[in-house]
Amino acid sequence: MTPRHLVLGGALAATLAATAWVATRPDENAGTVAVVEPVRKPTAAASAPAPQTAARQPWAEASAEQLAAWQPPPPPPAPPPPPLSTVAAPAPPSAPPLPYQMIGRLVEGEGAQAVELALLTSPSRTLSVKRGDVIDGQWRVEQVSTSGVSLTWLPSQIPQNIVFKAVP
After folding, report:
1. pTM
2. Residue 53: strand, helix, or coil
3. Are 39 and 46 in contact (CB under 8 A)?
4. What is the CA radius of gyration of the chain?
5. Which among 132, 145, 63 has a CA at the least distance from the CA of 104?
């Protein structure tokens, strides 16, 4: 312990001892209240008798206008509806993003018998697809090329392309 800790501990002990001592002393002024009169300077009117104070009257009831100030404000009026001509038509449906990315392309066979395959990967699986294959029951492969894969989202017949993205 440092000397500072010892000094602070001693001060705490002295404070607690003084508090306990005051709390155990009998109260000499129990039940009495000291009233202090303000000191007034003597003036020329000092010899005049003090004015009598009137008995207090109850307050008058508050009027509706006075009580209205304490009420919450009324809600603001609703905004007018937009004119029908400014309402935009809903956006055309768009295909959700394909959860695969193209990591490679493979050509099997030669000449007219050659079949181009695209290698697709996702966090859970890797696929090898060719033209006409259906992926996850929602995507049909339309074309495989050196730059990517052309697909059609089957629920809305919306085309989408996946570009070749090399994986390090």
Report:
1. 0.44
2. coil
3. no
4. 46
5. 145
- Count of other CB atoms within 10 angstroms of residue 117: 18
Q: What are phi and psi of 75, to 5 degrees?
A: -65, 150
* DSSP conformational letter for 27: -
**Order of strands, sheet of 148-153, starting from the edge strand that comes earlier in the sequence:** 134-135, 139-144, 148-153, 158-163
Q: Is 148 helix (H, G, I), strand (E, B) or coil?
A: strand
Q: Which residues pair with 140 in a beta bridge?
A: 134, 152
Q: What is the pLDDT of residues 17-73, one digit of tens each?
A: 999 998 888 877 666 666 667 766 666 555 556 666 777 888 888 888 887 777 787
Q: Tens digits of per-residue pLDDT, 96-134?
A: 888 888 888 888 888 888 888 988 888 899 999 999 999
Q: Which of 79, 135, 70 is nearest to 102 (CA)?
A: 135
Measured CA to CA, the distance from residue 151 to residue 142 in angstroms comes to 5
Q: How far is CA 70 from CA 56, 58, 73, 114, in A?
A: 26, 21, 9, 86
